[in-house]
Design goal:
Length: 307
């Protein structure tokens, strides 16, 4: 009985050594008590739970009332020790983390579990091993946020009866075996070489496409230029033919007007005779054979014959 009484009067605090400096030591019943902010003092009357003292001024009955537990309502940080876990692809990992807790119900935290720190730490470790067994090694690194969320959800389902709320869980370090680490490095290097090769091939392809597009555009522009040139040339030739036709028609019209005038036939005969003589002179220059009319000495007869 004396041993049991001594254990009850000096309960074990579940906060770590770094957190005990923020929590008050076990106070004695001095009738008038001042409870600090963000702390809850659990009081027993004659060995049975009586009430929880709120921050500020409080009064207790000597001898009958005793303070059994002091619970800190601040956010509590617990280091989860490093542990081994096997992934879905049978890779052994060494993982440690940090757990952030807060006491929501001081009564459940005092009487719901004997050692809350040990219970929550063990629960976090078992939950982490269970969640890691569902993921492959690659997904463990990519889905750390999802893994943390699943661990927090699993802890809160179990710690609700303890009056404790898990706010978040963070994985600090993930250690893989040296051989696996070397293979991961080789995989990363191979992936980088693959990306470099793909980028180089894409660059070559883009360059070939650009060159082909340039040649295509050049051919299109050249054909369009040739087409425009032919159109312009045809239009120019048509304009020239039209101009010649108009000039010839005008000359014929003028010739007709001139022939209709007085002595017009004589003028026309003279012009024809001049062209006749000019044609013979050209023929004499271009060939050794000369064709002459029988009456070359009779110019007047030649003119009369043309008339």
């Amino acid at each position: 009985m004396l041993l049991t009484q001594s254990q009850r009067t000096a309960p074990r605090l579940w906060v770590t050594a770094a957190q005990q400096r923020w929590a008050s030591t076990m106070p004695m019943n001095t009738v008038i008590l001042f409870v600090p902010q963000q702390e809850a003092w659990v009081v027993e009357r004659m060995g049975r739970f009586h009430r929880i003292l709120e921050p500020g001024l409080n009064f207790l009955i000597p001898v009958l009332d005793k303070i059994r537990y002091v619970q800190s309502l601040k956010e509590i940080v617990i280091d989860v020790p490093e542990q081994s876990a096997v992934s879905l692809d049978n890779v052994t990992l060494q993982i440690d983390g940090v757990l952030y807790l807060r006491i929501l119900n001081p009564f459940k935290a005092s009487y719901g579990v004997e050692d809350p720190e040990y219970a929550v730490t063990q629960l976090a470790q078992t939950t982490m091993r269970s969640e890691l067994g569902k993921l492959t090694l690659d997904k463990v690194f990519r889905e750390r946020e999802s893994l943390n969320s699943n661990i927090v959800h699993s802890i809160n389902q179990a710690s609700d009866e303890w009056g404790i709320r898990c706010l978040r869980y963070e994985i600090k370090d993930i250690h893989v075996p040296p051989r696996v680490k070397e293979s991961m490095q080789m995989q990363v290097e191979a992936e980088r070489k693959k990306r470099a090769t793909v980028l180089e091939s894409e660059g070559t392809r883009e360059s070939a496409i650009n060159i082909a597009e340039g040649r295509k555009q050049a051919q299109i522009l050249a054909s369009e230029g040739e087409k425009a040139e032919q159109i312009n040339q045809a239009f120019g030739e048509a304009q020239a033919v039209l101009a010649k036709a108009e000039a010839k028609a005008k000359s014929i019209r003028l010739l007709s007007d001139a022939l209709s005038e007085h002595n017009g036939n004589a003028a026309a005969s003279l012009s024809v005779a001049e062209q006749y003589v000019s044609a013979f002179s050209k023929l004499a220059k271009e060939s050794n054979t000369i064709l002459l009319p029988t009456n070359t000495g009779d110019i007047s007869g030649m003119v009369t014959q043309v008339h």
